[in-house]
Amino acid sequence: MNKVIIFGGTTEGRRLAQTLAKKEVFCVYCVATDYGKDPIEESEYIEVRTGRLDSTAMVEMFECEQPDGIIDATHPFATAVKTEIEDALFRYITVPFYRLLRAEDNVDVSGCTFFDSALDVARALENTTGKVFLTTGSKELPIFCQSESLRERIIARVIPNIESLEICKEQGLKGSQIIAMQGPFSKAMNVAFLKESGASILVLKEGGQASGEAERIEAAGALGIKCFVIRRPQEKVEGLTFDQVRDKLFNLFRIDYSDDLEETDEVTAAIPEQGFDNKINVILAGFGMGPASQTREVLEAIEEADYIFGAPRMLVGFDSKAKKYPHYLAEDIVPILQQITIDLKYGTKNVVILLSGDTGFYSGAAKLGQALDELNFCKTRILPGISSISAIAARAKENWQDGEILSTHGIKESTWKLQVLNGALHNKKTFVITSGARDVRIIGEMLVSAEKEYGIRFKIFVGTNLYTDERVEWLTADKCASFNRDGLVTILIKNDNVIPKILAPSLLDSQFVRDKVPMSKEEIRALSVCKLQPTKNAVIYDIGSGSGSVAVELALLDPSVKVFAVEIKPEACSLIKKNIEKFSASNIELVEGAAPDVIRDLPAPTHVFIGGSGGRLEDILSELISRNTHIRIVINAVTLETISEINNVLKKFEIDDADIVQVTVSKSKKAGEYSLMQGQNPVYIVSFGVN
Question: Which residues form the Tetrapyrrole methylase domain (predicted)?
């Protein structure tokens, strides 16, 4: 089930949670007080949590809940909680984050005076006379009550909860100066309050829609009362409208939302095809591992930027005049760049897109750069950053040029597990960028098993949050298996007893889990694999996989190889599963059923081994040839009927360069003090390429 965490307590936050709940997205809805909890009801898909959280508590919640997205839908003036959210995001792994902005009200503000802070308003009020109708909430009340003369003129409208009333009491307000009521308040209600209180000045925050800002300003205007307005704090991170946040989440979770959209008057402007002269200069900048690790040229680019994009944790580590957008994917960035170009009447704008680590090492720079190169109004440059591999090597006082370098981040777990295990067994040094503590624990468990099986010992150097509250330490495999430290983690695995990697088929028949299921013998298996000529990143079908011996042999040649073991017999499928587990061959996928029926939806193969066809060899080859015209195929045959079938198929498909070998293997067997050669069934190995 998809899950999000929403920091709410606002109309927009409540509306978003309810919208997502209708689409069966689970929402952890966080509010500071019971007052914020009241307007929303818990349901099967909404869990409401009450209480103020600091950044540490937020990180703990993120780690526990593992959300697919995080949304800040707090009040525009809730600057303290926004800061805590930003700090928590900086310490947490990258996850889609959206700040939901409250839409501005379209109201005549000609009779309003704007101020940057509540303190500025309080100072201005001391130079006025008459009663003040204060609607800024209870938190700012101490600022307005510092002056006794001003305090006596205040009528404060606050929410009806104990906390607000306690603050009113602490600040010395009398009961006649307090209106404790829950909104929303219409223009007519505001007119009535202002008349009844006899106020000459109305004080409010620039809260935007859903805050009742327009209704209050219009009521004051109708009575000729002055309005003092506290400006909305400037956002550190660029926000999105409700519709934009909803659309982002629906797209993220692949939700069909065509029936939920309301009609709008927005018109999407078209980008002209010609006439742009590099209106936007884009720099893809390596962010390193944190604010303390950027290069001078990256820092200079940030200082000169008009717009900055990046994961939320990157946007809060420095001050800049630039507008900040919490995006790092091309699909999110390109539309904003297009809109910037439309709005730009003259000149150019500088854009920096921050990418973690180094732009040339497991980075999104390549894919993003390709998307930007298709835009005729952008000029793109790339600035490198300091990779965590360089940093961890320096901390461990090791070189990295002779090590295996891997990453688990953004890679399928079944793929990286085999890569890491192979790297650790066959290299003195293996560097791994991980996605956090969970990956370290998985790696630790694999290494513990490898130590038991191969009688070796690994030393693991672990770096957490390098350059930012960093911790580095040498650990054993056992300690890694229970690792639980939060943050971004890079590790170095050292192995002083390297197992040389054999670059050829090398498994003995005795190493496999066996039963009565037929199995290609090791000599035939080795020759067949050599005839197949597998390559790096190959996609291989093992059709009629039997015990899975050929599939395992192929899979262990290189972690980049993907093998589909196709088998119809249940007892054989059971054996294949056992052998996959025994050899940790996570790059094998068992496909249960008969070929060609079950291979039609598989990725197109580059190589195919056929150990058994069930009498459907012609159908199988017809399907394979239709999928990919460049395939290397090897067929084993032990019966005369299969030999005849192969001969007919070669003629039908006009394959005249097939290599046909008959192999007879004899193996020694002890008979008392003597060794006798015992012959095995002859096997035909037919190999050919389809071009």
Answer: 282-445
Q: Is 50 exceeded by the pLDDT of residue 490? A: yes
Virtual torsion, Cα 634, 638, 640, 646, nearest 10 deg: -10
**Distance of alpha carbon 334 from alpha carbon 356, whole angstroms:** 19
CB 531 within 8 A of CB 597: no
Mean pLDDT, range 416-430, rounded to an integer: 94
- Structure tokens belonging to residue 249: 């989440």
What domain range is 34 assigned to? 3-101+238-252
- Main-chain dihedrals φ then ψ at residue 432, nearest 5 degrees: -135, 125
212, 243: one domain: no
Q: Given the structure tokens 């690790």, which residue do they identify?
A: 293
Alpha-carbon distance of 89 to 70, in angstroms, equals 9
Who contacts 69 (Cβ-Cβ below 8 Å, separation ≥6)? Answer: 4, 5, 95, 96, 97, 98, 249, 252
d(CA 299, CA 352): 10
Residues 275-310 have pLDDT tens digits of 445 589 999 999 988 777 889 999 999 999 999 998
Structure token pair of residue 527: 């020759």
667 in a structural domain: yes
The CATH number covering residue 155 comes to 3.40.50.1980
Question: Does the CA dihedral 668-669-674-676 come out positive or negative?
Answer: negative
- Does a cis peptide bond (omega within 30 degrees of 0) precede residue 184? yes
* pLDDT score for 520: 77
The listed range with the strongest mean pLDDT (142-146, 558-562, 624-628) is 142-146
Alpha carbon separation from 209 to 12, 35, 106, 212, 218 (Å, rounded) = 10, 20, 9, 7, 14
